[in-house]
Amino acid sequence: MNDELAIDVRGMTKRFGNRTVVNHIDLQVHTGEICGFLGPNGSGKTTFIRMLCGLLRAEAGSGTVLGYDVITESDAIKLRAGYMTQKFSFYEDLSIFENLDFVARMYSIEDRREAVAESVERLGLGERKDQLAGELSGGWKQRLALAACMIHRPKLLLLDEPTAGVDPQARRDFWEQIHQLAGQGLTFLIATHYMDEAERCHRLAFILNGNLLAQGTVAEILEQTHLTTWSVSGSKLLELAEQLRGQPGTQQAVAFGNTLHVSGDDSDALERIIAPFRTEHYEWRRIDAGLEDVFIHLMERSKERESS
Amino acid sequence: MTGWDFSPARFWAMVVKEFVQMRRDRLTFAMMVGIPLLQLILFGYAINSDPRHLPTAVILADNGRQGRTLLNAMQNTTYFDFVRQFKTESEGHEALARGDVQFVINIPENFTRDLLRGDRPSILVEADATDPGTTSNAIGSLNVLLNTALQNDLKGPLAFLAGTPGPIDLRVHALYNPEAITQYNIVPGLIGVVLTMTMVMITALAITRERESGTMENLLSMPVRPLEVLIGKIIPYILVGYIQIGLILFAAHFLFRVPMAGSLPLLLIITFVFIIANLAMGVTFSTVAENQRQAIQMGFFFFLPNILLSGFAFSFRGMPDWAQAIGELLPLTHFLRIVRGILLKGNGLAEVAPEIWPIALFTVVALAIGVKRYRQTLD
Ligand SMILES: Nc1ncnc2c1ncn2[C@@H]1O[C@H](COP(=O)(O)OP(=O)(O)OP(=O)(O)O)[C@@H](O)[C@H]1O
Ligand SMILES: [Mg+2]
Q: What predicted TM-score, i.e. pTM, was given to this entire model?
């Protein structure tokens, strides 16, 4: 990791009509970093990524991507960045090979044939390369799209939920590859809903309703929120959850398999609340809050703030 | 950054992609070949067929032998079926107005006497020419017939009458539509009409389809420029245009016997400009339209004045000035003059050249609008 910033934007704002979908977001990602981009559905992740590569015009904001002006030099950015769309957007009536070849031609890659062949090889689709992209299963489409947006050897990859619908084995391979490439100096901005993936990122940005709620490494984010979490096991956890949720000071009571996670940001208050329930029916254990606890907590808190 | 940047490599990438997609899209391809065939059959055969056995009334004011011979000969052409006999002209007019008969043949008093005297009596043929296609062949046959039918009757002392300028004066009144459009006019015109329709439609869908299927997002994230996309999408369909022309010319020649007086290579070369003009129009529509449905509507909206004001459906000279002014803007108007000029009149480059530049100008303007309107973002 070095000190150069691959993404350095400030105040990025996008409105659709009079609805602000991305609201003054600042984001800095160092070269060689993997930045996870999290947020619930409709929070503005896709919109933000599209602004970075010039697909949407920003209403406000400035900065650079790969050293080029994010507002005025999107052509230079497009040439050097790869963007994988959330929805499959390659040509379903072209074969795997033809799609890759098209992309390679678009970027005027010098050793086009080798690049395409190599890409097909890496995908592991050697014998199916003449199959139409439209006939691929969802997961394979994702993998094709990923291969296609990397064919021109971009310095920055903007990946919008690249592993949605991809099986665990392929997901693991994908993350292996990402880390390898990051080691070679590539930068990644990856939108995802998977917490295990978020934990594999160097840093995270969490947005909600177009606002950036938290940014930093996993440890930093966990620390920022000082969330206390208790894990309970026992019988009648559902009733327990009901009772706990009614109390001020408990922000969450969420079932995790056979246990219930109870969290709050005031550890003393939380301890007082659970005291009456620490009977022989339940086994209480204090645990480190996970990312998911933190994010749900952030969401709840912002909801509370809105309603108050 | 301007919209006019151009990289041959990226342009070629578009062309290759469009070719493959065109090849895979069997239905569209079949339509592009099917539409000319269908139109040819509709215009060429169904509408412009050679109708025979047309109901005909006679007003026979003279009972001489020659008059009857003539009527017999007319019936023998199979164009005319005598279904009525009237006493007065006004009766005949009423029948024409009602559409009961197509023709009223008027053999005047003293026809035989005048004929034998060599006074060139006239036969008046009144025709309901609302649709000239119906009557033109029948009337054409009359000209020939009048000169030959009486050959047998005009022998011996009457032989001197059989010579030119013809013993009988044929007068045809084409009622309702005095300017006859002939089949020859229509089949060459079809080249232009079919090209306008299919070329504009097919490219009008070009960019809206990418938008609707989501592939536009991908395309826009690549460093491709408007002109490369627009021209890249046009090129493959030039080939389709030539296939269509080939089909129509083939049919024009072998099925409809349309004369080909001028140079075919010249026609094919000039057609290139016309094809490009329509493709440019279509691709420009597709940059303006929000979705494929709108693109198709725009295509039809463009198609209508082309059919009505270009001189295809109506005589160009018969239109009011404002309509002619609109017509002059349309590529089809000029192309019709070119194609009819070359095929029917045997025109050369010198004669048709003035019609080429308006088409070229149209192309440039259409493409410029397209490049200007082409949105490089998704919003
Ligand atoms: N073209 C558009 N016109 C109007 N509203 C839009 C447009 N695109 C997105 N939006 C709105 O902007 C908001 C953010 O959408 P966006 O796709 O960026 O969310 P997201 O975080 O990517 O969600 P998801 O996790 O579901 O992919 C949504 O409420 C959406 O309805
Ligand atoms: Mg999204």
A: 0.77
Residue nearest to atom 26 of ligand 1 (CA): A41
User: What residues flank ligand 1, with Cβ below 6 Å?
Assistant: A 16, 21, 39, 41-47, 86
The DSSP code for A279 is S
Q: Which amino acid belongs to residue B66? A: Q
B286-310 pLDDT, tens digit each: 888 888 899 989 998 999 899 888 8
Per residue in A237-292, pLDDT (tens digit) is 888 888 888 777 777 888 888 888 888 888 888 888 888 888 888 888 888 888 88
**Pair (B230, B159) in one structural domain:** no
- pLDDT beneath 50, residues of chain B: 1, 177-181
The whole-angstrom separation of Cα A32 and Cα A184 is 7
Which residues 58-87 of A have a C-beta within 8 angstroms of B?
75, 78-79, 83, 85, 87
Which of A14, A38, A43 has the most ligand 1 atoms within 8 A of CB, as the residue to mutate? A43
Residue identifier of the C-alpha nearest atom 25 of ligand 1 = A41
What separation in Å is there between the alpha carbon of A23 and the centre of ligand 1? 13
Give SS3 for B164.
Answer: coil
CATH number attached to the domain at A222-307? 3.30.70.250
Residue B22: inside a domain: no
Contacts of A132 in chain B (CB under 8 A): 24
Q: A5-216 architecture in CATH?
A: 3-Layer(aba) Sandwich (3.40)
**Pair B153, B228 in one domain:** no
- Partners of A7 in the β-ladder: A29, A65
Assess contact for A186 and A155: CB atoms under 8 A: yes
The ipTM value here is 0.85
